[in-house]
Structures
1.
Amino acid sequence: MSEMDRSGNLIIVSGPSGAGKSVLASRVLQVMPHLKFSVSYTTRAPRGAEQNGVEYFFVSREAFQALIQGNDLLEFAEVYGNHYGTSREFVDGLLRQGEDVLLDVDIQGASIVRQKRPDAVGVFILPPSYRILRDRLMRRSLDAGFVIEQRLKIARREIRHYNDYDYLIINEEINSSTLELQSIILGARCRTAARRERAESVIATFGGIDAEDP
């Protein structure tokens, strides 16, 4: 049995806006085989060079409501006045193929997914300090000043939930943080539960788990 005979792992990454989730996700996706990004639906407008179907599926509010009514979303939430949701079939299809799926969602969405998928691995990304988080948000130049203040206010509440996750990365230096996230994903692939079928096929070559000693 090969590694691709396994079911994939769902890796949930959360943290306050500006903590570096998107950068970390992009870096590990570039270097890790059999890791895919869960492209979510959103009603917000694209930012910068974002492309439909790459960072997000950009849809109207009406189309988003249709997804909710059709039970097509694994989770959905309203964040900063916009709606975000994870496609159930998109994620499950990749997992069935043996691909690990990286899901970047907020605290609320992560909680919903983990209730439905308790075997998912939760990773919280924490900035080194409030001041550094503020500086990062300012340097991005993606939001007006009042929006940045709103994000910082929400970040104060979000960071209290770090202990709800399996792993914590304090994103001070991007290379070190990337290696930490890679290690978490590799570790998830080595969990006993994730490799049970392969272990059983190995044990079968010994005559089975109940085999008598020769």
2.
Amino acid sequence: EIEEIFEIRRLLEPAAAAIAAKKMTDTALEIMDRAIEAGISASDADDFTAFVVANATFRRAWMGQVPNTQLVAALARYIYHVQIIRLVTLSQRTVREDVLQRLRAIHDAFQSGKADRVSALFKQHVDAAVLAYRSYRK
């Protein structure tokens, strides 16, 4: 079931992110930038709860730029279905550092308005989440 959910996310998130890239606001970019900085601080301090909150703040900011409410609702449903996996994988410092690097690249792509680049980065982001999950399962 988890593998199937990741497959759905891999289809939906890049498309939604490409839409968000075309609608991105300076306010959302600022929120995402602050969320990355908060994530860095939280990871450095091994404050797992703060890291998860920062990650969720980043997600809410970009998803808030998607005008299709049904797409956002579908994404939210599948993202929250794998929350327990996220809680386990993000407890590992190497996974957190990898996530932060990808979030910075995603932010920069959003800032440049390159929808194709944003979409490709989201595919990589979901693929990395799948790999972290599979590594955890071993």
3.
Amino acid sequence: VIGVDDQGVVAAAAASARLGLRGNDPAAAVRTRDKLAMRTALEGEGVPQPPYRLLGPDDDVERVGAEIGWPCVIKPLGGSASRGVIRVDGPEEAIRAAARIRAMLSSKGSGPPPPLLVEGYVGGREVAVEGLLEGGRLRVLAVFDKPDPMEGPFFEETLLVTPSRLPAPILEALDEVTGRAAGALGLSEGALHAELRVDDGGRVVVLELAARSVGG
């Protein structure tokens, strides 16, 4: 049972478990759909990622942003394709961005303002890793470079290019860190799509990871 978009991965994992088929643990699939749960799981296993804080409805976005350090990125806890993901360089931009994201989310329902995630901005080159998991072992199918600058304030993808032109040691690090991230989330079977950055010092940092192929 294969989930080909973000909305389907949890249902696919649950169906696989119910039918006794190979698939991801449903709890692992749920972690890929909740950015805070993902960050917490990666942190628990020491996987390199940006610093992060939860921004609750009553929290001061200026204070949380200052704790992370400017610039930073504000995003919803769910979603894909960088919808609602905004880079901010200071307090005023952070206040406007949080209000904008919450207005976007509130159009889908009523209730108190939803919590958001504030993350440190990681400079450098952004890449996407496509792979297949089998018994917890990752086989990388392709590494995509993103030649357009991905510096914000928004992060729309316009072009993906493979094979990557990154040097072999960096490609090996991408493979290793992506595999560690999948393991930290509890993923073991099927397609994997990861977004990572290689910072100016050559360190690989996990931005996102999904239990599906590219697209979503």
